[in-house]
Inverse folding.
């Protein structure tokens, strides 16, 4: 039998941590790519540079998506607090 789990409206499934992590990793990869493009310090192949840029774009995009989901969870928590307190919004 499958156990049914109940989650609180204040539970954000760690999306706040996830978006920060993804944006930081994407920014680090982007900085590595830009340094390599400017100075050829690491002497990477063109395909490796393209892969680093692709992963940087994916991480930053995933971070933006996780940020959006995190903000929606925070709005949901605020609405749940308003409903529990009995406040009406017009």
């Amino acid at each position: 039998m499958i156990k049914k789990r109940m989650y609180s409206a204040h539970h954000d499934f760690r999306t706040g941590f996830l978006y920060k992590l993804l944006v930081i990793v994407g920014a680090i990869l982007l900085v590595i790519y830009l340094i390599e493009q400017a100075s050829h310090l690491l002497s990477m192949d063109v395909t490796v540079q393209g892969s680093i840029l692709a992963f940087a774009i994916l991480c930053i995009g995933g971070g933006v998506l996780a940020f959006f989901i995190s903000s929606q969870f925070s709005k949901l928590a605020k609405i749940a607090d308003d409903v529990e307190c009995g406040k009406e919004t017009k």
About this structure: The radius of gyration is 20 Å.
